[in-house]
């Protein structure tokens, strides 16, 4: 994703409705009654286009004991929360 860690953490609560957020050095754990979602964050080199520099992160999402409908709902909220406008 073309996003900084700070911006990712600012937007994540919109996608994590119903989950308790626990942050650690390697990423985030979203905990619910029925399981957890582990999000691993890795900083990548900035994307450079001329004089423009954009921060990048590799985001990996792993579900632990989360039912398929809850996984789908989370991923839909995640996509909407991080969707950027364009033109």
Give an overview of the whole structure:
The protein has 87 residues and is α+β, with helices and mostly antiparallel strands. It has one domain (5-82): Ribosomal Protein S8, Chain: A, domain 1 (2-Layer Sandwich), CATH 3.30.1370. It contains 2 helices and 4 strands. It has helices at residues 5-15, 68-82; strands spanning 20-24, 27-32, 35-49, 52-64. It has a 4-stranded antiparallel sheet, with no helix packed on it. Strand 2 (27-32) and strand 3 (35-49) form a beta hairpin. The longest helix has 15 residues, at 68-82. The model has no long low-confidence stretch (mean pLDDT 92).
Mean pLDDT comes to 92
Number of helices: 2
CATH architecture descriptor text: 2-Layer Sandwich
| Topology-level CATH name | Ribosomal Protein S8, Chain: A, domain 1
Number of domains: 1
Which oligomerization state do the chains in this entry correspond to?
single chain
Shape: elongated
Overall number of strands: 4
Strand order of the largest sheet: 1-2-3-4
**Structural class determined from secondary elements:** alpha+beta
**Fraction of residues in helices?**
25-40%
Strand content: 35-45%
Along the chain, the helix and strand elements come as HEEEEH
Q: Report on the biggest sheet.
A: 4 strands, antiparallel
């Amino acid at each position: 994703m073309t996003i900084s860690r700070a911006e990712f953490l600012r937007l994540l609560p919109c996608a994590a409705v119903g989950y308790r957020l626990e942050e650690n050095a390697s990423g985030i754990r979203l905990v619910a009654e029925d399981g957890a979602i582990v999000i691993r964050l890795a900083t990548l080199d900035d994307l450079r286009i001329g004089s423009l520099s954009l921060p990048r992160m590799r985001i990996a999402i792993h579900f632990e004991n989360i039912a398929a409908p809850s996984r789908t709902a989370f991923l839909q909220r995640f996509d909407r929360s991080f969707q950027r406008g364009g033109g």
